[in-house]
Amino acid sequence: xxTSTRLAQLRTAFVxxxxxxxxISQSASADIPSRVFLNGVPTPVYxxxxxxxxxxxxxxxxxxxxxxxxxTLESYGRAHQWGTWTRTELAHYATLGTLNARRGxxxxxxxxxxxxxxxxxxxxxxxxxxxxxxxxxxxxxxxxDAHPDVVEAQKEAIRYRRGIWSHGVPKYVLTSLxxxxxxxxxxxYNRLVHSVTGASKKWYHQEHYDECQTACAPLPDQADMDKIxxxxxxxxxxxxxxxxxxxxxxxxxxAVLKRYVETGITGDLPGDRFEMEAIMSQAVSAGWLNTTGxxxxxxxxxxxxxxxxxxxxxxx
Length: 316
Hints:
3-stranded antiparallel sheet, CATH 2.40.50.90
């Protein structure tokens, strides 16, 4: 065989290998469909997280859906924290909620109304109960209590400490943060969802949040000053933690911690506020600084455009 012919064959084989590799890569990254019955019609959809999907084909192709009655944790990164969970651990459960939704066959109905983001609202009872019972999600209703069946599924998950409830059960789950700089719907608020009833309430505020700032559910008049003093002593005895708070006197730090427990925010801080809040939010979320000792839900702030892709906030 001539050398030129052999080289031509090798080049052809190389090109074909590249094409096959590219095809496999594209196939692996393509949207893997799940089967959902939408108003009785079997439809392929893609779950981008555990409580929303995009319709892939059919009469509703391209439409986006938000599922009512429950809520999975944010899947864009390490956003949530409560009890003794780390943010990374709770982000893992957001991923499990997404995978659980993708693996099942579900039945959803809708009157085709939309939410504030233009997504069609769907009610999927079988998916709602399954996600909540496994501890991959929590019951949630914008108006009033969540559906009794979903609430019962959540009581079971909490009783057996499944999923997101394994390391503590806060009174409220903090599901969204909005900085005043966003001018969100005219009245600025964060959303809190009751862990027993699933009812949500709006936490109105006039706060500006810096990127990666951590806010916690407020506990008015529940700061325990003895616990705060003991926590400050612990900080001062740890060389790494002490260096983070070296610009704050004990008195100033006590005032900051008291405000953090009672209002959920720290206000202006000297030095690296994010390092400070990483330590303080752990104490607040674990319930170490309040009178009840109950866990508190906290959340990391990032604008929507900074939650995904190359511009994603580093803390996520």
